Amino acid sequence: MLRYSSFVNPHNMAQHESRVRTVFEYFMIIFGIFPMALMVNWVLLPHAFVGGGLTGICSAIYYVTGGLFPSIFPEYGGAIPVWLTTFVFNAILLLIAGLTVGWRFCIRTMVGVAAITFWYRIIPILPQPIIADPWLGAIIGGFVFGLSLGCVLAANGSSGGTDIVAMIVNHYRNISLGNIMLACDIVIILSAFFLPLPESMLKEGGNPTYLQIKRVLYGVAMTISYTVAVDWIMARFNRSVHFLIYSAKYDEIATAINTTVNRGVTVLDGTGWYSKQPVKVISVLVRKPESSLVFSLVHQIDPNALVSIADVGGVFGSGFDKIKAK
């Protein structure tokens, strides 16, 4: 738990914490994307999987253009590399998003796009996947991909792609982001049925239609795996807590939380049943990482205050998750 000296201005301390948190979030965006790129270049592309999102589109382009540009992209077998299509598509989408949604949204996404392009470029594509079994590759690769993406999203970042498409559509239509991204993923994964089969699958033999269906199912398994991982990470990073604070110095504590933590505070009227005296109860909702700062402020102002804290399943509204029609 943080401890503040009486000579330290809590407001300045909060500003310092905010800057540190921002730096940490950008660090998470840049390096949190690394495992995602690793799974793409070491599992997804060697197995010729087609997952959801922009990664799936860029992967499909990589497979279709194989051998078409040997003099331009010799190190990629003449195929248009994923890092290049990722950068181009995201640049176009970011331009559209900046002109429609606003450039403030695009800043962290630009960092994420630059990071994913960089990692795709420097990580070599393995000729053979590190996970030989395709089903295990789809599940494990998808899960690691999802953990990586979840860390980026928890840092208020994005790797671009369908995230940008969803935000643009959501800006004009009251459709949930999850439904938009799910629709995009379904279309992209199903497109794998019409792509040429990789040599690794052709060696298995059998009915080509069966092999195409099997390839689509690999993409479905990978997408389900990474979705579960993203939800698992987000459920832990986005937890909120509800404070009930009983103190005679409620006005000082409420003001400190309001100005230092930058959270709304509600002061409730109550009655102490033993003393039959009126009391004030502070009610405040904060993110889990902010709870230590609230505790410190209360301890600094009134060490004898009674504090109750409870985990909250979800908080929607200003400063928390947005309320959207499903």
Strand content: 5-15%
Q: Give, in spatial order, the strands making up the sheet with the most strands.
A: 2-3-1-4
Number of helices in the DSSP assignment: 12
How many domains is the backbone divided into?
2
Distance between the termini: 38 Å
Helicity, as a percent range: 55-70%
- Extended strand count: 4
Radius of gyration: 25 Å
- Poorly predicted regions are 1-8
Give helix and strand order, one letter per element, not per position.
HHHHHHHHHHEHEEHE
Q: Which oligomerization state do the chains in this entry correspond to?
A: single chain
Q: State mean pLDDT (0 to 100 scale).
A: 81
- How would you characterize the largest beta sheet? 4 strands, antiparallel
The outline comes out as: elongated
Quickly give the structural class: alpha+beta
Write a short abstract of this structure.
This protein has 326 residues and is α+β, with helices and mostly antiparallel strands.
